[in-house]
Write a structure and sequence with these properties.
By secondary structure, the chain is mainly alpha-helical. The chain is 62% helix and 6% strand. It has six helices and two strands. The protein has a two-stranded antiparallel sheet with strand order 1-2. Helix 2 packs across helix 3. The longest helix is centred in the middle third of the chain and has 17 residues. The radius of gyration is 19 Å and the shape is elongated. The model has no long low-confidence stretch (mean pLDDT 92).
């Protein structure tokens, strides 16, 4: 899976926000304030995303409608695996240790993580 740029990711978040497809004008309206784009920039980005296999463009009517092909969960899993591989030698333990050493985990988060891991173990 090819990596998404920051602006492409912003568009994916919009597409994931509802079940119904979006028009390019609707997408432009939603990126305003986050990305300073005009409609041609949105159209170019959407075309790239179609080429990358992230977005489907329905051209059956006069208006093009865009929807996500890749689900939010699938993208999260792919990105998480890539992140773990690149920075932590595929080790979730090293990631958690890094977060703990960097004081990024609160006591509440540690408890939640422990409970989650326990529930995974019980589920096996």
């Amino acid at each position: 899976m090819k990596k998404l740029s920051e602006s492409e990711f912003e568009i994916m978040k919009i597409l994931w926000s509802r079940e119904e497809p979006f028009t390019s004008n609707e997408i432009l309206g939603r990126v305003k304030g986050k990305i300073d784009w005009k409609l041609p920039s949105v159209m170019t980005t959407l075309a790239r995303m179609v080429d990358k296999g992230y977005v489907y463009c329905d051209r059956s009517t006069r208006t093009n409608y865009y929807s996500a092909i890749v689900s939010k969960e699938t993208y999260r899993i792919e990105e998480s695996e890539s992140f773990l591989e690149k920075l932590y030698d595929k080790s979730p333990t090293k990631l958690i240790a890094s977060l703990y050493q960097g004081k990024r985990l609160s006591k509440k988060e540690i408890t939640e993580l422990r409970e989650y891991l326990d529930s995974l173990e019980k589920g096996k």
